[in-house]
Every structure is written in C-alpha cells, then in structure tokens.
Amino acid sequence: MQKNIQSKYNGMLEVTMQQGRKVLHSENTNYSYGNVQSVWTAALKKISLHDVQSILLLGLGGGSVVDILKHEYHYTGKLTAIEIDPVIVQIAKEEFGITNTENMEIECMDAFDFVKKSTKNFDLVIVDIFIDKVMPDILLSPAFWQNTAKRTAKGGTIIFNAFSSASKLKSIKEELTRLGFELKIYPKVNGSNTMLVAGRADKK
Asked: Are 130 and 163 in contact, with CB atoms under 8 Å apart?
C-alpha cells in the first residue's frame, strides 16, 4: 500500500509499508516510524522516565515517539503533543491511531506560540521539529529556548533532535547553559541523528 498526501507545511508526504510496518516519509527523509523510531528508542534510553509525570512533545509527526512511550516504556502520565500541520495530525490519527485520550492532548498550533503562551510546566520536553529534513530557523532563536526552558519543570529535562545539524548546536548549547541546564550531546544515535539532552540543574 502507498498513499501520497499533499501538505501545505511539509510538501508531499507518503504513507507506505516498510519491513511489514506502516511508516511516514516526507520527500527526502523518514518522518515517523522506520529508522527515526529506532533513533528515538535509543535516545530515550539516555534518560530516566521513572519520575516523569508530564511530557510535552513539540512536533508530533505520525506519532512514533508517542508509540514508543506507550508501548515500550508503558508511560501512563500526561502527554501534550503540539503539531502545526493539520495534515500531519490527520495522518497520525487515521493512519497510526494517535488520537486524543484521557491522558493525551494533541493541539494543532505553532510550537513557538505554545511555549510562549502556555503556563504549564512539564517534567520532560521533547523537541522534534522539522520541515522535511530541515531544522526551522526558529529553533536557533534564543527566545524559543528561553520559553521552552520556562515550560520545563524544576529538575526536568529537554531532549532535542538536532538530526544532522550538529554544527548549528553551538548557539543552542550556549543559551541552555546560560539558562541553567546541564548538557550532554550524543552524536549519531543509532548511527544517524545527533541528540542533545539538557537537564535543569535545580531540583524539584
């Protein structure tokens, strides 16, 4: 099976089968499930979810991170997913069964606006925002990270998928360090993506 779906934000998207499982691709990269799911499975092993009761996911995609949290880590806490593209939200729901539940809320809005306007704090913030395989320039904005830091609870953690943009991490690392986070960089997680893990030094 193969479905091609046009998106205003992400161009042509493709839902297809890969190794017996449904996956989501953009024009130039795997967007959800497939290799990117393996990357996130490995990345989430870098932290402890033991005391995490609330998660903010910036960038839903087809919902592969949600799938990992629920089925591999048996996470049952609150999860808020922010996705700007209504087509992606529809694909996640119709093709991958990712929907609003008692513990999960999906909001179709810009991630920058959410972290700027929200008053909620989260134990874990996952930043996984791309247009095709390009990291939007807004992620290089100090204001984005300042607002994201405000949404991170005391003792909380940010995981940022930098994809192959390790060269762009310098300004982000400097800003998060200034904001009181302790950083770890994991290059080529699962042989590909660079992941940044930032923990707030203050405790709960």
From this structure: yes
